[in-house]
Amino acid sequence: MSDEIFPVPDKWAETAKINEAEYHERYARSLTDPDGFWNAESQRIDWIHPYETLKDVSYDEADFRIGWFLGGKLNICANALDRHLEERGDTPAIIWEPDDPETQARTLTYRDLHARVCKFANVLTVNGVGKGDRVTIYLPMIPEAAIAMLACARIGAVHSVVFAGFSPDALAGRIEDCQSNIVITADEGLRGGKPVPLKANVDAALEKVEVGRVIVYRHTGADVDFNPVRDVWWDDAIEVAAPLCEPETMDAEDPLFILYTSGSTGKPKGVLHTTGGYAVWASMTHEYVFDYRPGQIYWCAADVGWVTGHSYVVYGPLINGATQVMFEGVPNYPDHSRFWQVVDKHKVEIFYAAPTALRALMREGDEWVTKTDRSSLRLLGSVGEPINPEAWDWYHRVVGERRCPIVDTWWQTETGAAMITPLPGATALKPGSASKPMFGVQPALVDPEKGTLLDGATAGALVITDSWPGQMRTVYGDHDRFFQTYFSQYPGYYFTGDGARRDEDGYYWITGRIDDVINVSGHRMGTAEVESALVEHPLVSEAAVVGMPHEVKGQGIYAYVTTNAGTDDNDELRKELVQWVRKEIGPIATPDVLQFAPGLPKTRSGKIMRRILRKIAENDMSNLGDTSTLADPSVVDDLVANRPQ
Ligand code: WT7
């Protein structure tokens, strides 16, 4: 199945913005004439002042720096809203589809959105937020999330969106790390008919860290605690807010947002993106990857709490004047047809989602899909994790009725937007392959041990050899960590953390993380984070966490836990520990398997041999490899014998 190649449909080759010949020509130009290429692409943005220097980048530790469009001045919010008003002020920007299909959908035109953003920007200012200040946003998938983000961008404040599924502890850590003095939240979120206690979570977080102000949007109308000194209702503040707000003039390299993401070590990193390069990059990739033209109905099903929501719900589509569906709910509520009912209801043409959702729906049978119409669909997208050929085939054959190309977009929080991806009018598709690099992106494979560049059809560690405009600029508050994490392993290159294979046609096949990061349902989880949550439990002395194959999630979380001497390792404690991790980090970190381990396999120098733990988690006992260097090889026998089935 995976050997099959799907050529570009004639109609796409003829009408798409980029056909195959154009792809090759522009890709070559982006590398041989970056000044000419990026000068042309930068015109998609309205600059207050044009840039003077395209790029100033060094990956050397001594003079490490990354900058693009230097000297350029712009406001990204004005690019997303103000400049559309004349031509498409009355065109829907966001069509909000609520969790409950019985609730009325809301449509916000560009004019509506602009008016709300201006007012909310003034609310922020009145509440003491200024240029460069960090604003924490902890909101569900409602238009107010986009409004809050754009309002920050308008006045030059730096937003830090925290996914509404994260726990109070995780929220507190993120507020503390970026020293934000304000949180924007809602009374509750709503997902699959179940309320999410956002305000209560904020209150709990603020027992650990202090902020001066909390702005609360009334979404479900639930009764929530309200601290009259600290808390402000969104609606009350809007009511008295001035309607006009001039967009702040921002430097191309002024920070736009921080988004926390898990790495292989320590606590989550605050990935920082800046303004000019990100604006060009999000807009350009959105236009070419989805072949987007204003008027088309586009739907990216990602949450704004992740980078996909930043680049492909908020900034990319709005800069491009798109009309998009924003969905509050989940794929299986009220039933497994929900995605496709939303497609039909709003006549969605372009649909972009994560493989985990597709796999979950695929298991429920084709009828949930086939009983819907879906004739509006023209293009499908996939993001967040490798899409297995079975899910690809199902997406293509059942959802898209073989009519819709699938763009399997590989990228990362760090890369800002799509890096390796098919273009629908240019790239023949190979199921499971993210295919070819975006303009300006130079992927390469290196030998994981030696760091040498590998040629031709081969596999290795995926690096990017030069900078691109949407590259992250630093880890907030820790520039050295930025260098050490991404540029120290393979000097001169950005290391992605992923492994990949390149075939004879130059197509890239991402094989997954090769560091200690697991990809659970398209979301990144650091094994170290889950481990540190576990060892915080008073009965746990040590923990080791690895990924395991999971039919729906892609990867699941397998935790090995050593308890304090004398502890009774029973099922009740197992459940308690699983709940503990959920509470500490959030439901996405819930261990799928928790095995009590009287001992962990360690080398004589005390290093845990994760390779062995991964094999046991994969139930691949015949490949445990050499265990003779272990301090105590018998612990492996115990783990194998007691692996929960
Ligand atoms: C990691 C980045 C892309 C934005 C959402 C996730 C994996 C992402 C693909 C893909 C194979 C993929 C990688 C990457 N990944 N897209 N199309 N095929 N793997 O962003 O949370 O920063 O995670 O997701 O392993 O490193 P993120």
Automatic annotation (TrEMBL):
<feature type="binding site">
    <location>
        <position position="332"/>
    </location>
    <ligand>
        <name>CoA</name>
    </ligand>
</feature>
<keyword id="KW-0067">ATP-binding</keyword>
<feature type="binding site">
    <location>
        <position position="498"/>
    </location>
    <ligand>
        <name>ATP</name>
    </ligand>
</feature>
<keyword id="KW-0007">Acetylation</keyword>
<dbReference type="Pfam" id="PF16177">
    <property type="entry name" value="ACAS_N"/>
</dbReference>
<dbReference type="InterPro" id="IPR020845">
    <property type="entry name" value="AMP-binding_CS"/>
</dbReference>
<dbReference type="InterPro" id="IPR025110">
    <property type="entry name" value="AMP-bd_C"/>
</dbReference>
<feature type="domain" description="AMP-binding enzyme C-terminal">
    <location>
        <begin position="529"/>
        <end position="607"/>
    </location>
</feature>
<dbReference type="InterPro" id="IPR000873">
    <property type="entry name" value="AMP-dep_synth/lig_dom"/>
</dbReference>
<feature type="binding site">
    <location>
        <begin position="384"/>
        <end position="386"/>
    </location>
    <ligand>
        <name>ATP</name>
    </ligand>
</feature>
<feature type="binding site">
    <location>
        <position position="524"/>
    </location>
    <ligand>
        <name>ATP</name>
    </ligand>
</feature>
<feature type="binding site">
    <location>
        <begin position="191"/>
        <end position="194"/>
    </location>
    <ligand>
        <name>CoA</name>
    </ligand>
</feature>
<keyword id="KW-0547">Nucleotide-binding</keyword>
<dbReference type="InterPro" id="IPR011904">
    <property type="entry name" value="Ac_CoA_lig"/>
</dbReference>
<feature type="binding site">
    <location>
        <position position="308"/>
    </location>
    <ligand>
        <name>CoA</name>
    </ligand>
</feature>
<feature type="binding site">
    <location>
        <position position="540"/>
    </location>
    <ligand>
        <name>Mg(2+)</name>
    </ligand>
</feature>
<feature type="binding site">
    <location>
        <position position="582"/>
    </location>
    <ligand>
        <name>CoA</name>
    </ligand>
</feature>
<dbReference type="InterPro" id="IPR032387">
    <property type="entry name" value="ACAS_N"/>
</dbReference>
<keyword id="KW-0436">Ligase</keyword>
<feature type="domain" description="Acetyl-coenzyme A synthetase N-terminal">
    <location>
        <begin position="23"/>
        <end position="80"/>
    </location>
</feature>
<feature type="binding site">
    <location>
        <position position="513"/>
    </location>
    <ligand>
        <name>ATP</name>
    </ligand>
</feature>
<dbReference type="Pfam" id="PF13193">
    <property type="entry name" value="AMP-binding_C"/>
</dbReference>
<feature type="binding site">
    <location>
        <position position="535"/>
    </location>
    <ligand>
        <name>Mg(2+)</name>
    </ligand>
</feature>
<feature type="binding site">
    <location>
        <position position="521"/>
    </location>
    <ligand>
        <name>CoA</name>
    </ligand>
</feature>
<feature type="domain" description="AMP-dependent synthetase/ligase">
    <location>
        <begin position="82"/>
        <end position="466"/>
    </location>
</feature>
<keyword id="KW-0479">Metal-binding</keyword>
<keyword id="KW-0460">Magnesium</keyword>
<protein>
    <recommendedName>
        <fullName>Acetyl-coenzyme A synthetase</fullName>
        <ecNumber>6.2.1.1</ecNumber>
    </recommendedName>
</protein>
<feature type="modified residue" description="N6-acetyllysine">
    <location>
        <position position="607"/>
    </location>
</feature>
<comment type="similarity">
    <text>Belongs to the ATP-dependent AMP-binding enzyme family.</text>
</comment>
<comment type="function">
    <text>Catalyzes the conversion of acetate into acetyl-CoA (AcCoA), an essential intermediate at the junction of anabolic and catabolic pathways. AcsA undergoes a two-step reaction. In the first half reaction, AcsA combines acetate with ATP to form acetyl-adenylate (AcAMP) intermediate. In the second half reaction, it can then transfer the acetyl group from AcAMP to the sulfhydryl group of CoA, forming the product AcCoA.</text>
</comment>
<dbReference type="Pfam" id="PF00501">
    <property type="entry name" value="AMP-binding"/>
</dbReference>
<dbReference type="GO" id="GO:0003987">
    <property type="term" value="F:acetate-CoA ligase activity"/>
</dbReference>
<feature type="binding site">
    <location>
        <begin position="408"/>
        <end position="413"/>
    </location>
    <ligand>
        <name>ATP</name>
    </ligand>
</feature>
<feature type="binding site">
    <location>
        <position position="537"/>
    </location>
    <ligand>
        <name>Mg(2+)</name>
    </ligand>
</feature>
